[in-house]
Amino acid sequence: MWRYLLPGGIFALLVAVFAVGLFRDPGYVPSPLIGKPAPEFSLPRLDDPQKNLQRQDLLGKTSLVNVWATWCTGCRQEHETLLTLAREGGVPIFGINWKDDPVLARQWLQQLGNPYAAVGVDEEGVTAIDWGVYGAPETFLVGPDGTVLYKHIAPMTLAVWRDEFMPRIAAARSGISP
Amino acid sequence: MRRPVTFLLTAMLLLAMQPASAIAPEESLADPVQQAAYEHLTNEVRCLVCQNQTIADSTAPLAVDLRREIRRLLEAGQSEEQVKTFLLERYGDFVLYRPRWQTNTAMLWLAPGLLLLIGAAALWRIISRRTSLPIPTEDGDPPSGT
Question: I need a surface site. Which of A90, B35, B38, B67 has the fewest CB within 10 A?
């Protein structure tokens, strides 16, 4: 009996492990920041380098932090969605312009529309490292107390907004963590 | 007359066969201990953009940034462990090719040893069972009358 059950069982177990592994995205790296306070940062603003965008600006309300660049095709893809969210999403969107040319970035916003409450310029990529950014676009959901609630890596879509962001925003508003 | 030409061509070919290095060599850190730590660390850290390369191998912009940050931290007097913690806090366990010993990595570290033990146990069982079998005679029948 065991002679057949044991190898059969081991085989079934291996098949299950491989099947799960096959459908997981190896490019997805879960962020250790979720549930932790957002990192401190202070970046010169894209519209006015004399002013800064800093962590304090995020506090007091639920907000999105979107990491983008003009060289990033996924950012072009999600831009319409961000514009829609800026109008109808009910949360401010803060941008971190990552390893980009500020001149091109300003042009981009002029031509395509500006969904951001403010954009900080991170030319060196130092703030991006503090946020654990490895590929734009990345969008963080930050709670009113400055806690990182969620991170989405890939272009933002309305489906992702509805399924992943809206429930968490509602939970943050009612004071229950999801 | 042909010989020097052949020699020259061979020499040129051989010179062209220098091993190519992936990254333009950076200026080494002033402190040789820090430089050793830097070289060791950059070969242990995964480049998250090109995931099967270390940040020492990669020319991805993020790898360049991470190397610069690691140099900065080492020059500021941080230890290798502190730099690793810095990276883990930002990018998670996946960033280290040799993950730390934790509850969720225990299986990863123990599995090879466990599998070896299971294999050894199975082998031992089979051998001990076979040695206790009667030895067949030349014509293939077990000896009778014992």
Answer: A90
